[in-house]
Amino acid sequence: MLYMGNVNRVIFWGVIPLIFLSYLAFKLYEWRYITDENRYLITTQHARNLKADHDFNCLILGGSNSVFSLSAEQMSRQTDLRCYNLSLLNEGFSDQAYFQFVDNIPLDKNKIDYVFYSSVYPLTTKHFAKRLEHNQRGTGLSGEVSFNLVGTPVAENFKNWLLNDRRFFASTRQYPLPNLYGDFNFQEYARCNSKGIKSAWNVVSDHEALTAWTHSQISEITRLFPRAEVHLILPSTLRSNVSDLDLSNVSEILHAITSERSIHYIKQSPFLDTSVLCDGPHHANSTGRDMRTHELLSAFQRFR
Predict the structure, then answer these.
(1) Structural domain harbouring 125
(2) In a domain, 145, yes or no
(3) DSSP state letter for 283
């Protein structure tokens, strides 16, 4: 009986806690290094970059379209601007999370003279609706993959890893850390593959909701950067299946809003084919990024 009591104590105080801690450690690893796709480390790197003594007077804001497709380094080298790309994948998932991230960055916001805000949401009904849903939920920077003790079973992930299952490795995509200008580092990203990219988006048809959302975005940007000249950008995407009339309607709405708010509006040309794309209809590769950034700078010069 004494022996059995000792065994029970070992199991209760030793084995069970060890199993729980091992499971907890795996779920933390899964969240940070698998489902997070490096988002946490990317935001941390942005903060480190801007904490250093840099004299930036220009920011690029937005989502993955400007992460992949605009270059602050190119803008800085080809003009007298000193730009940093503070765009985030999925634009931080919600407006609250993204603008809080921007607000918390160690940067003298009164020294920012130019802001280029490039958002793809006016061009996609599906993702725009999802954005509004995330706004209502107050979704954070980790999105819907925030840390959770439940989810994919450990045994299933381990089995998929042993079997070299593509579903496991597809979920382990790691985006590279930004360079000193905040730009996407294509040299550290080997997953560009334009095969199969299609133009399947429909522009936002709820013009009332789009108008309200756009006004809100402009208000947040002008609040954060009161001295900045703001440029609202309708970004380049692969738009072969988009109705010219629908696109024109959305563009006219954005143009009218920017005129009312005394900021600038830039409508960028579509990507003509997939040869300049990385892994999505709004994600340029390095060549496409050079082209889109050059076009943006040409449009910007008309306002100077």
Answers:
(1) 36-140+154-301
(2) no
(3) E
